[in-house]
Amino acid sequence: MYGFAGKTLNVNLTTGSVKSELLDEHLAEKFIGGMGLAGWLAYKLIDRRTAPLSPENTLILSTGPLAGTLAPACSRVHITSRSPNSGFICYTNAGHSAALMMKYAGYDCLTITGRAENPVYLKITDDDVEIRDAGHIWGRDTWESTDLLRKEAEDHWIDCIGPSGENLVNYSIILCSKRSSYNKTGAGTVMGSKNLKAIAVKGTKGIKVADPERFQKLTDEFTRGIVSDSEVKAYRAYGGSMGNRPGFSSDEFVARVVERPYACLGCPLACKHLINMKDGPYRGLTYRISHMGALIGHNGSGGPENWDELVKLVEKENLNGIEATVTAGILGYLVKCYQNSVLSESEIGYIPRKGGEAMRRLIEQTVRREGIGATAAGGMRAFVEKIGEDSEMYLNHEKWVGRQLALANEVSTYSIGSLTNPRGAKAEFVHIPIRGGDSKGLTPEEIRGFCVSLGLQMSDVSRVCSGPGTFNVGRLVKWVEDYSFAYASMGFCSREPIMRHINLEKLSQLYTAAIGIEMSPAKLLEAGERVFNVFKAFNLKMGATRIDDMPSRGAVWPREKPLTVAGEEDGSLAQILNDYYDERGWNPDGIPTKTKLDILGLQEISADL
Ligand code: SF4
Predict the structure, then answer these.
(1) In terms of DSSP H, where are the helices of 454-572?
(2) Would you say 60 and 42 are in contact if contact means Cβ atoms under 8 Å apart?
């Protein structure tokens, strides 16, 4: 097979079985590969009765069909499972060298089921796969564990969990060779439930593409576009727009906080940073991190007020392997519950206050499951179930995942897509490959041009491009999601300065040149739609309803009051969702119709729903 490594590795930690099987070429094509293929495997392998932390749950690692080639910024490994945090689909991705190592070891996908009797780690070196004892690193933080494993697995890429994942905190992350992380929705918790401390992987085989000359020409063109992007400098300096919030100026970041940028393998943008505090209380504190600017927002509701507090807090989160946004959201919830006499000082154990120090204290309690931390370990949903459903008004979440964006009253593809995303709180899967990626600020001509570039018929374009903001946001989101899911399934990073230098036509040409299977733009877009429907079907199988596509009670969104697009009214959220479902060919409850599933070749799902 070209592009693909050609095999899936299946590991059962209960029995110790390790088996590889040939990748089904037909399935790979139908679901593009990577995230798309993993979504289908998750749908097939995870039963509705499977509890997220039971041995039967499956953790799936997958790489895109172009990962490991010369395609720029194509370094993503996607992890898919059933989320302990939401009960719905868990999917998260991280970059750097992991995808290349997996592909070069010979695997497009890795599925892990079962539960080891004692802590173990998985060591993959090409065809040599070992389940090894991890007793000596269990209980250690992520950085120490990575350093120790590197002595036993030299040159291997190491994904590992920290004490948070071991102690089954529902929103634990997986740290990747101390460089980036798989966050949100609890992939690290699923690893912990399997007594799996780490995965170390090294591959030495290469990947061949079907038409090297054509492929090189296309990738060169793509790379040149990224390098010429006007925001490259800002991304390298501080990871893109930072917003200059009080206490977090980008000038101070450059002067005091950061040593230098660095990149995932094969990425010309280099948005990541080596942090090195030059002065202040944490002088000398150093680590690598992706998109520090975003963490200002992610931790915002917890209240770190300056770079010193944030840098120290992120260190604590990474060492313990715990997700930032949910932790911050829970601290904000405790403060509001206390202020509104829903929880007393004695119930919490202290008077909760915002700030970096308070966040660090809550992390310690949560990871050890001590005091209020025992409830916090269950996530936002655990609090609402324990304290009462009215207390949800003090939380801000989408599908029980901490909010990615501070949403304003003006709706856009980001804000609606963040709700409709099957994982919840993931706006990067509604990136329009133009300018900043969001519909906000785009001209009517740009939105119309985007619809035309997707090959929409004029009647479709008219339907999508009608409405007060010159477009119907619910209808537009459907098409942006299909495009984004096709793009992400190929393995690319979704940062705006990457995404806006390619389009559907070029993506399909890249796929064809790499894989050797003719993939027209229309076929690729339909595959993106197919993948999205599979992710949605997973959630429906797990009991999701229309209400799960609405914001939480604590969100600032009025559900029935008219919302605005570009300054004009666009109907209530309920109306926007109706339009979105209609555009998707789903019924008003958000369930794909049989006709739609049959068109997409998803008859198996049609029979299930
Ligand atoms: S843009 Fe940043 S996160 Fe994306 S591939 Fe490049 S370095 Fe990695």
Answers:
(1) 458-464, 473-489, 496-499, 504-515, 521-541
(2) yes
Ligand 1 and 269: CB distance under 6 A: yes
Distance 17 CA to ligand 1 centre (A): 35
Query: All domains of the chain, ordered by start, with CATH?
Result: 7-202 (3.60.9.10), 231-268+270-400 (1.10.569.10), 413-608 (1.10.599.10)
Q: CB-based burial of residue 249 (10 Å sphere; 0-12 exposed, 13-18 middle, 19+ buried)?
A: middle
Atom of ligand 1 nearest to the CA of 271: 2
Of residues 150, 152, 166, 121, the one with CA closest to residue 11: 121
Of 80, 70, 3, 76, whose CA–CA distance to 38 is shortest?
A: 80
pLDDT tens, 521-544? 999 999 999 999 999 999 999 999
Q: What is the pLDDT of residues 462-512, one digit of tens each?
A: 999 987 778 999 999 999 999 999 999 999 999 999 999 999 999 999 999
From the CB of 565, is ligand 1 less than 6 Å away?
A: no
The 10 Å Cβ neighbour count of residue 321 is 29
Q: Choose the residue to mutate in 233, 269, 289, 291 for probing ligand 1, maximizing ligand atoms within 8 Å of C-beta.
A: 269
Distance CA(91)–CA(193), nearest Å, equals 17
494 C-alpha vs ligand 1 centroid, how far in Å? 8
pLDDT (tens digit, 9 = 90+) per residue, 98-119?
A: 899 999 999 999 999 999 999 9
CA distances from 166 to 144, 321, 384, 452 (A): 15, 9, 24, 49
Q: What is the pLDDT of residue 440?
A: 85
Across the chain, mean pLDDT equals: 92
Q: Does the pLDDT of residue 363 top 90, yes or no?
A: yes
Contact 383, 335 (CB under 8 A): no
Record the tokens describing residue 512, joined without a space. 């064809």
Q: Could you read off the pLDDT of 546-590 as tens digits, one per residue?
A: 999 988 877 766 666 777 776 677 788 889 999 999 999 999 999
Q: What is the DSSP letter of 241?
A: -
Cα pseudo-dihedral 432, 401, 164, 494, rounded to 10: 0
Whole-number Å distance between alpha carbons of 306 and 291: 16
pLDDT, residue 95, reads 86
**Whether the CB of 264 sits within 6 Å of ligand 1:** yes
Tell me which residue has its CA closest to atom 5 in ligand 1.
73
Using DSSP, state whether 118 is helix, strand or coil: coil
* CB contact at 8 A, 450 and 434: yes
Q: Please, which residues have CB within 8 angstroms of residue 142's CB and are 6 or more apart in sequence?
A: 160, 161, 162, 175, 178, 318, 319, 320, 321
* Ligand 1 and 95: CB distance under 6 A: yes
**Ligand 1 centroid to residue 267 C-alpha, Å:** 6
Helix extents (H) in 11-87: 25-30, 34-45
Q: Measured from the CB, is residue 267 less than 6 Å from ligand 1?
A: yes
Q: Which of 194, 197, 184, 199 is nearest to 53 (CA)?
A: 194
- The CA 290 to ligand 1 mean position distance, Å, reads 8
| Of 32, 14, 149, the residue nearest 510 (C-alpha) | 32
